[in-house]
Amino acid sequence: MTQQSTDLKARYDALLQDEPKMRVRNAAEKLDVSEMELVAAQCGDIEATLLEGTAQTLFKELPTLGEVMLLTRNEWCVHERHGRYESVKVGHGPVGLVLGADLDLRVFFSSWKYAWAVTQNGRKSIQFFDGAGMALHKVYCTENSDMAAYDALVEKFRAADQEPAPVDRTPAAPKAYASEVPELLRQEWLGMTDTHDFAGLLKKWNLPRVQVLQSAGEDLAQRVDNDAIEVMLQKAAESDLPIMCFVGNKGMIQIHSGPVKKLMRTGPWFNILDPKFNLHLNTTAIHSIWIVNKPTEDGWVTSLEGYSEDGEQIVQFFGARKPGVPEIRQWRELLESLCKQPLAA
Questions:
Q1: Is residue 134 very low, low, confident or very high in pLDDT (cuts 50, 70, 90)?
Q2: CA-to-CA distance for 128 and 211, rounded, in angstroms?
Q3: What would the pLDDT profile of 101-120 be if each residue is shown by its tens digit?
Q4: Fold designation for 3-85+113-157
């Protein structure tokens, strides 16, 4: 272990003496290091093994683990889902897909750089990080996981050199966007046939999401009260309405589909605490919430979306649906009840 790692361990231990329940991510922020640097230094009770091989190759092995708990988060929202990796569609390219009975993932491998097998408090996991040491996706073993398969995976991919390349925490240059939204964009929005066309629209015109929402017209994108997500979740839970919940970062979008039941607030966090799905949403980080209305071949599809002050998407909700199936009318009516102006229909 390097002197730098020894010093970091000492700083981490001193921090935990004052705040023993602090999570690794929060400790990293306090110590001004990346989360992965704490993992690599084996801080506290962390035991970590660096894994080698491409992220795509490792990802293909995850179905062997059986039932696991997946965790994907951004700065403001944590999405946890239990299930099995099934229908894993991963090649050598930068995009992957998981479409199993329980798990629904969109994977963007271009930013994945490090993988670790981590044991902490007796919990075993596989954790993936980007080049700056930020966690992109974590896979936790459960009592229903195949631990022999986990051990075999770790041995198969154990790196010969356990010293990782240094992380690069240099901030990326801010992306330059176009200054104005063209009038033609609304026409192209109205011509969409799939919700995924929206991403192409943003890319074509080089525009940030919130700026487009502000300019589209209230029949297509309408800002609503900042408690709209909580109101929606309460009503969905009361009526057993199945929803879709998307949470992502630059390397992963993780999706839950189904009803939600147990809702609880803990300080700034609004939580869903169901057996197979947990969500932890920091509502103090929400700067704006939008109802977004898109035309598709299956009819209009509406979403409820929360954004941070700098325009980053925190969380996104739809009514549960599959391609080729119209939106659930009950979901549409729920979102319409939150609007002050009518939506295009």
A1: very high
A2: 32
A3: 899 999 999 999 999 999 99
A4: Heme iron utilization protein-like fold (3.40.1570)
- The token pair that represents 197 in the structure block: 């066309």
pLDDT in tens, 16-52: 999 988 999 999 999 999 999 999 999 999 999 999 9
Q: Encoding tokens for residue 125?
A: 């996991």
Domain ranges of the chain: 3-85+113-157, 184-261+282-338
Q: At a CB cut-off of 8 Å and minimum separation 6, what does 23 contact?
A: none
Question: What CATH number should be reported for the domain whose range is 184-261+282-338?
Answer: 3.40.1570.10
Q: DSSP states of 43-93 as a string?
A: -TT-EEEEE-S-HHHHHHHGGGGEEEEEEEE-SSEEEEEEEE--SEEE-SS
User: Can you read off the two tokens belonging to residue 97?
Assistant: 């897909």
Q: What is the DSSP string of 176-211?
A: P--SS--THHHHHHHT-SSTTHHHHHHHHHT--HHH
The Cα angle at residue 306 between residues 220 and 109, in degrees rounded to 5: 100
Report pLDDT digits (tens) over 298-322: 999 999 999 999 999 999 999 999 8
Neighbouring residues of 7: CB distance < 8 A, sequence distance ≥ 6: none
**Fold agreement (3-85+113-157, 184-261+282-338):** yes
Residue 24 structure tokens: 């690794």
